[in-house]
Amino acid sequence: MCGISGIFDTQGTRDIARALIARINDSQAHRGPDEHDVHLEPGLALGHRRLSVIDLAAGQQPLFNAEGTVGIVFNGEIYNYRDLTAELQALGYRFRTRSDTEVIVHAWSAWGESCVHRLRGMFAFALWDRREQTLFLARDRMGVKPMHYAWLPDGSFVFGSELKVLTSHPDFVRELDPLAVEEYFTLGYVVDPRCIYRNAHKLPPAHTLTLRRGEKNRPTARQYWDVSFTNDSTITLQDAQAELRDRLREAVRLRMVADVPLGAFLSGGVDSSAVVATMAGLSSTPVHTCSIGFDDPRFDESTYALQVAERYRTDHRLETVSSEDFDLIDTLAWLYDEPFADSSAIPTYRVCQMARKHVTVALSGDGGDESLGGYRRYRMHLGEEAVRGRMPLALRRAMFGPLGRLYPKADWAPRPLRAKTTFQALAMDSVQAYCHSMSQLRGDARRALFSQAFQRSLGGYGVLDVFRQHAARAQTDDPLALIQYLDYKTWLVGDINTKVDRASMAHSLEVRSPLLDHKLVEWLATLPSDFKIRGGQGKAVFKQACEPLLPHDLLYRPKMGFSVPLASWLRGPLKGRVQQALLGERMHGCGFFNPSTVRRLIDEHNSGLRDHATALWMLLMFEAFLRLNDGAAGH
After folding, report:
1. 462 lies in which domain range?
2. Are residues 480 and 524 in the same domain?
3. pLDDT of 197 above 70
4. DSSP string across 404-458
5. What's the structural domain count of the chain?
6. Catalytic status, residue 435
7. Are both 484 and 496 inside the same structural domain?
8. Is the whole-model pTM more than 0.90?
9. Does residue 61 sit within a domain?
10. Is 249 inside any structural domain?
11. What was the pLDDT predicted at 252?
12. In terms of domains, do 546 and 577 share one?
């Protein structure tokens, strides 16, 4: 696990200063504290920060083949590298290391751009072919590892694991993208491939980008893989449970290869508990497990984690986080480089911080909810779809549209009485309704928050455009499969994977996610949707498959999530900071917001009249981003 960076002169071979590549490479030193190096040649600079996990003695990067014609900087893990090594050796390639990095170098020589189809793992890499004068970038199928890039005014190309690599280059223009701001205040993150800056881009998951020196036109990223929801498997439910256990075991086994201490996160939820149970069955020694507890019982799952730890006799460590643990705002703003509003980044940061004291690699349960239908919103969407399927859109708009406008926003009420959002969703088509349900701030709230000048700068753009583009490529009419696909393209990549990557790499911790194994994802996409949500129960086939492994009350209890008490923080210990930050000159001067709306949100929240925690936290994190990026133009 590492941080990578580079600069490429696309039109010539101008010299690149060693001090420049060293500086931008060191901006992400936290990603790789063990070793660092750079490679320079006319028109090219490659940088690498290494967290040593496999072949500690000989896996240094940038790594070149014996002839010096193909080199790479690589972040991630190739879990099938031993099989690929044997295959490439049979083709005549000779290896100087035992690392998975060298596998990619020879795979390129053997198979060219199609080498990515052979790789099973999480990866982002840049590969330089000197003979072809070609720079090849690739990102893994599920978007576990990040890749950012930009073209500079002089035609040079700069790339890196984190956005701070780009902003560390003196020629990068920090001009904010209004469309990215709209995405952030809709979803809480900026959606791939957009970045908060106009000139920067994220390479989307399952995409490659090929640059050839001398080409006049800027290349576009190409997709090499996509998940296909066929939902057409004829397997029985009982056989699916057995096969799911086998496939999970294989995915876990592949991720237990490491030359450093390895363990797992154990939250007390179904997914991480299943991963730990599987690891215990594959290990001859106790599994190292780490849990975070909360001193507020509304958010604490540590007792369930302890059940699993005791059952499998793991080497378990628990640390309790105070419900007043809100001092990470500036740290997170620096770490994520863009506005990022998922408050569960705080406990995620803490559990990674704790785990790194004991292990270098940790397995997690990320991806289970998306692949197996675990979110409550999935069940709600299917319920709404049943209504939408019985009534034409025009009739639903006429009936539910006025109800959605007139019904009060009852944040304080029991969940069944919070019908405003449901009425609004029933007046929409399926894709619009799901985008609506995923929105942290919905259209009317954003219109009230944004200034008229900022709204004009959007030119009518909204995140719904992104959802419709993805939906058009989903090639499924199954209601659950469609929203799972949309989550793979937006939420999973932009929120979950981003949160875990930055939080873990802040502590030089490698996190591996067996439930994001692309072969497992492909197989799960063939299962009928009623295997996933059955009798009102999410992740039905998975929970049934895990019944021999885990306690019944853990499997079938309500999902809690990794939450923090935002509303009370913002009314209590953060009250002064909210007032100072959100009503200060920085937020007023950027011109994006309506000051009277910001004041109203603060006053109503402080009085207890309304719960505006989501909006205020988003504004607070945006202000922290602006404060740390005062050189940005356009605000």
Report:
1. 387-488
2. no
3. yes
4. HHHS---TTS-GGG--HHHHHHHTS-HHHHHHHHH-SS-HHHHHHHB-HHHHHHH
5. 4
6. no
7. no
8. yes
9. yes
10. yes
11. 98
12. no
